[in-house]
Amino acid sequence: MTDTQTPQSRLPGTAVPLEPELDGVDAWWRAANYLSAGQIYLRDNPLLRRPLEPADVKARLLGHWGTTPGLNFIYAHLNRLINESGQQFLFITGPGHGGPANVANAWLEGTYSEIYSHVGLDEEGLRTLFKQFSYPGGVPSHAAPETPGSIHEGGELGYSLAHAYGAVFDNPDLIAATVIGDGEAETGPLAASWHSNSFLDPAVDGAVLPILHLNGYKIANPTVLARMPEAQLLKLLEGYGFHPHVVTVEDPAAVMAAHEDFAAALGTCLAEIRAIQEPYRTGSKLAVPADAPQAAATHERAQEHAPRWPMIVFRSPKGWTGPQTVDGKQVEGTWRAHQVPLSEVHENPEHLAQLEEWLQSYRPEELFDGAGRLRQEIAGLAPAGDARMSATPYANGGHLLRDLRLPAYADFAVETAQPGSERVSPMLNLGRYLAEIIRLNPENFRIFGPDETASNRLQEVYGVTDKVWQQRIEAVDEHLARSGRVMEVLSEHLCEGWLEGYLLTGRHGVFNCYEAFVHIVDSMFNQHAKWLKVSRELSWRQPIASLNYLLSSHVWQQDHNGFSHQDPGFIDHVVNKKADVIRVYLPPDANTLLAVAQHILGTRNRVNVVISGKQPAPVWLAPEEAKLHVKRGIGVWDFAGSEDTGPGAKPDPDVVMGCAGDVPTLETVAAAALLKEQLPELRIRVVNVVDLMRLQDSAEHPHGLSDRDFDTLFTQDRPVIFAYHGYPWLIHRLTYRRTNHGNLHVRGYKEEGTTTTPFDMAMLNQIDRFQLAIDVLDRVPSLGSTQAGFRQWLQDERERCRQYTRDEGQDPPFISGWTLEEAQRSTAD
Amino acid sequence: MTDTQTPQSRLPGTAVPLEPELDGVDAWWRAANYLSAGQIYLRDNPLLRRPLEPADVKARLLGHWGTTPGLNFIYAHLNRLINESGQQFLFITGPGHGGPANVANAWLEGTYSEIYSHVGLDEEGLRTLFKQFSYPGGVPSHAAPETPGSIHEGGELGYSLAHAYGAVFDNPDLIAATVIGDGEAETGPLAASWHSNSFLDPAVDGAVLPILHLNGYKIANPTVLARMPEAQLLKLLEGYGFHPHVVTVEDPAAVMAAHEDFAAALGTCLAEIRAIQEPYRTGSKLAVPADAPQAAATHERAQEHAPRWPMIVFRSPKGWTGPQTVDGKQVEGTWRAHQVPLSEVHENPEHLAQLEEWLQSYRPEELFDGAGRLRQEIAGLAPAGDARMSATPYANGGHLLRDLRLPAYADFAVETAQPGSERVSPMLNLGRYLAEIIRLNPENFRIFGPDETASNRLQEVYGVTDKVWQQRIEAVDEHLARSGRVMEVLSEHLCEGWLEGYLLTGRHGVFNCYEAFVHIVDSMFNQHAKWLKVSRELSWRQPIASLNYLLSSHVWQQDHNGFSHQDPGFIDHVVNKKADVIRVYLPPDANTLLAVAQHILGTRNRVNVVISGKQPAPVWLAPEEAKLHVKRGIGVWDFAGSEDTGPGAKPDPDVVMGCAGDVPTLETVAAAALLKEQLPELRIRVVNVVDLMRLQDSAEHPHGLSDRDFDTLFTQDRPVIFAYHGYPWLIHRLTYRRTNHGNLHVRGYKEEGTTTTPFDMAMLNQIDRFQLAIDVLDRVPSLGSTQAGFRQWLQDERERCRQYTRDEGQDPPFISGWTLEEAQRSTAD
Ligand SMILES: Cc1ncc(C[n+]2csc(CCOP(=O)(O)OP(=O)(O)O)c2C)c(N)n1
Ligand SMILES: Cc1ncc(C[n+]2csc(CCOP(=O)(O)OP(=O)(O)O)c2C)c(N)n1
Ligand SMILES: [Mg+2]
Ligand SMILES: [Mg+2]
């Protein structure tokens, strides 16, 4: 079935005679295949002690056979290698739909029963194991969180290789054996992932062993990689920087030849990996010193390229060892084997007979003893304890997790005499804090970003670390080195996938990204949030560090770019996921951002979304206040409002001005200042929201405010003008059950934008100070029509500002240089 | 700056002496570079007639210089080739941030002034051209819809190559010259796109000429492709199936050598493209007949592979011809040239002088005459009329768009004696209709899908067409051929990108996808919706066919898969975009799906999202009713409710049961039937929503219902139990302004799921018939506590159903086989 020459297809085997050992591998493989088919088909008669009857077969036949025997084959061989070499492996199942394989091997290794004691290591256990699979109230069909040894669900294809690299960063002793479906390989994220070698440091990182599972087909089609000329495929993989070892199963029946080839290839790969790593670790290849990037360029290693890591191409039949033909059509070795090769087993006696024959072909009697226990000779082939891939702590990363050492908040918070008197870039300041985190945690914290870490103003981290880069380094380069804590690649998919893999194996990290383009990983976020949701329900899964998004260059602050870069909708996407898992923070200034960062880096099993501007902006809150504000998540800002809260004060303000997000907060404070100047009697309450989930009902979200608290802040009946960072509807969605919702008027981004000034953007979306002040005039009943003149002035001011931008190409200085102090001074005059 | 050998870097030139011609190319390039730098910097003094002053320079310096000279270089050479060969080219700017280049060339070609008459072809025009760029009230910094000749905004990197292939499908006379940033090439979608050649039919499709713009850097980093060994890069590109021609600019000053090399490479590429196409078009390569897939396998061509298409690797300095060093640091040829190489031009006289020197280096006096007109010798180098890439109708696809010929709805609608008496798979039935569309429109309609077209049950289309496949075809393959109307690749990014390119160049299509995984293209959808929003505001952009998503295998109908496949959130994502652009349809049965399909295929400039199940399901509405229902978008279903609407009837029902989505509709109808049986007096109104935007306010969305209409349907004060396909909050968001919103109770997907039965999924999320009936009992005040017994029975039924799934592995037959007829029969008894 192959074409052209396959130069590496029959590798020189190792010197030792393999046969006896390989009999064991083959027995394991047969056992795993038997257990896999059993899971898909059987609800009873697990050992075929009596002739198979329709009643033994599940009512609904659900699962994916096609990929499974290949996964089992690889797994069996990895076990042999683990035993032989003592090497620690993590198994990543790209085609996660081959879940039966993962479960089967975990059972064979005993891990399954250790975790799930109701699934014993005997016939009764087997019956349970079979019946529960893809079954209501049972276990999922994929390599899900429920599956021991998995960090990768694999249902949504494309992320296996990125997860694998993330898992081995800073895990020098680990190899992630990563099975990649040839269909999966057509996806964008997977195609990008091959280049991860340009970012893998052989000194401090482990290795990834990609095993391209070239079974020729996906659901209903052949695959591109399987059908291109083999010479082209090899060029492609070499072009990706790998040394491919091809194992081709020409004849499905020649099983022992396949075992020999695969064992040899695997052995060669391990030897090559060790040969690459050794000089980096024994010091014969010097690491480039982090503090000397200039020197680095002259250094010999700077001229080197990433090592040529080995990989395996495993060309084997889809559905191997399953039914060859069904109803006269070829199944083994075709796409028809993808799911359930034999259907209608209840109604079709021929199919039933074929199923029995298929199951018997694994010779279960040779595999299990009379009590249904795996025979000792086979069970003994499992690696011991944590060396079992189903039991490795790397796949239950919370076990390995150490708390981050966090620097003192006070050392990095910005002192400020008075609200807004300092102007600081929140992201720049956070960069200092992150630098210190890196200094304190040199081995288990990384920052990931799609070529935007400096653009997002986190460049202070380069004072203590570099960007990882294994290709040539030139004299002109800055902050590039072989080792470092910052991972930059122009692929949001890779950033996300690497970070997920890093977190799932027990480390910490942050993904910094332009707000608009984080949508690129919407779907990856979904899958991770789902993973966490399920993991939280499994007592044996230890909590892992949260996935932290740091979104900047946001919708309100585009300069060089325009409409394509303006999209605050990631929040909306995120809040659909389980309330326990997700948090959204909109810190209004540098100190609150810092407090939020400190908080989230201590959390577990969550997804934290933090959105902050990068331009210098007023610091509203002094360090201690900011910390309290973040703790509360929401609060009244007396300095911004004009409520008389002294004795004899009226019970409620005339209007509440809510705000969430840095730019909306600035506009709200400025609007309130305008109103205070003109209408000193008007009682305005300014409420700032940092933790967006506070708006929700306490019944809906653990961070939600009680109705009582909400009513106290937003009143039961006063108009609320709410300026929000994102699409306005979300605020309604979060608050529609609140007493005062009928009086809530939200301004936000309404999908208007282009390349223009920040204030013009605010005006385009009617979230500017003048519009907010107009909104107040229009909604406070007691003002009646008294403020017609003021209202007109506000309208005119908008127009004047707009005209200024057209004439001068920038915002009027009284806008861009606005300070609360001056605004209040003019009020005092 | 290159390494190792660059085998193709100095290609044998064509036989003709190039020099005189290349002087023209160089002059064009200088003019384009001058105009580009002018756009970034100048607000006045456009021809440098007087010494440059700070006041001539814009206040904010915004734009991206780095990529621009390379784009201009390529553009100038393509023009030369167009003149020489008469070949039609479409220019796709992967690094769309190089917008100044596109605008500059459009102005040089005269197109800009033809479209935007206020930007004349003289000095005043130049002043306007410069000032407007990246300027408030001006034009965006990217290759936006406003930019003549562009179909690709390019702000979000990664989609250039996919757009290019989409553009040339079924456009045999077109070549899409596609500049790919070396940073862009790191993204997943771009990495996947190289394989598009496996799906390009040389007979009926045009060609793509990728030009990898290897300027070495992205924003702040070198690029992987630029820094890997060149031999590896060539292997990679050959592995992708290309024949790469490398043009390396070793010495930035050796401009004429670069021109020679590039011109030669371009000429060679065109010759290679024509050499590939010719035999397919003259009949010497026979197309595989669509109706003989078996025969195809034996056919000689089946054993062939995709042709080896040419491409160019253009290794040139980033920011070429710009300032070499600034403040002692190298800029040209580094990442420092990415945006604005010279900053603080107002304050720093040295920078100002350097800017002037830079601009003068293009010798504007040689390029423009005294009136600021482009000198005739240069202007004359532009191709004529539509051959200009800035004026090609391919980039304004609406010009080329022909209406689809749509088959008669009645011929495909399912006759049904009585609501729910037929069970039909809506998707299967739609497949028949799509097949007929394909038959009627063999050249301008395609179906795109990530290996899921059959899985989504559209396989009837294979009766009339095949899946396009240019790699080896084997005897076992079905429905694969060199030509066809179905595009299947395991990449949602490619499906989306191809379809977008296809639509933008004036054709029609559908993207069928699993509902959950369409999130993979969330961000691509964003960009397309933004493109449409802006295009609609430009009178010169002709409307294009809508982007149609057909989402199936949805959240409520997973069998082989589980939680990772359950996500109905794409709707939420979509509704954030401009109301004019987006529509969401949830047809409840086969006939409504058909009517929706017929409708959307006639629309323009929209994104239509259609979600439908694929399993056999009741047909509720007869053909004519279904058509009316879709026209209305919402309607009362008398057959399902129990309202007495005769004379003397009470004014309002006791409860409204709303539903949207096929499974929620089924559960609602079943719940109403249960209630009717037990409580014949209860007046239930069932309202089904097909067009989700009907729920919104008419002020918010053009499809929105007026308040009056909404109140009539949903009453002003009766409880409304609404069963919704997706996350329940969206229904609140759409209706929070409605009178009766306080009584609205929504059930939907609340992120609970796993591999289980359909009814168990409904129960897990409390959207099942029993729960809906309970909701009614709990919310109709007049029922008081009278129904305690019935309520308990409903609760118990839920438990019994759940237990049945645990015991039997499937839904109880009285659920899976439920029919309205029987339910009503039992009521009648
Ligand atoms: C992103 C994504 N798109 C589509 C699917 C639907 N799907 C499930 S399995 C499959 C084929 C996978 O083929 P391959 O990776 O070769 O796996 P194997 O042949 O080993 O089963 C597809 C398209 C998916 N799971 N993920
Ligand atoms: C998907 C995406 N991620 C990040 C960015 C931010 N960004 C803008 S330009 C750029 C670098 C582009 O480099 P390259 O493609 O090489 O273009 P060129 O060097 O020609 O400017 C980046 C990362 C983006 N535009 N799109
Ligand atoms: Mg496969
Ligand atoms: Mg570049």
TrEMBL record, chains A, B:
Keyword set, alphabetical order: Lyase, Thiamine pyrophosphate
Lineage summary: Bacteria, Bacillati, Actinomycetota, Actinomycetes, Micrococcales
Gene3D superfamilies noted in UniProt: 3.40.50.920, 3.40.50.970
Region spans: Disordered: 806-829
Cofactor(s) required, per the database record: thiamine diphosphate
Coiled-coil spans in chain: none
Listed HAMAP family: Phosphoketolase
E.C. code: 4.1.2.-
Segments forming domain Xylulose 5-phosphate/Fructose 6-phosphate phosphoketolase C-terminal: 614-819
Family designation: Belongs to the XFP family.
Transmembrane segments: none
Protein name stated in the entry: Probable phosphoketolase
PROSITE patterns named among the record's database cross-references: PHOSPHOKETOLASE_1, PHOSPHOKETOLASE_2
Pfam families in alphabetical order: XFP, XFP_C, XFP_N
Residue ranges of every copy of the Xylulose 5-phosphate/Fructose 6-phosphate phosphoketolase N-terminal domain listed in the record: 20-399
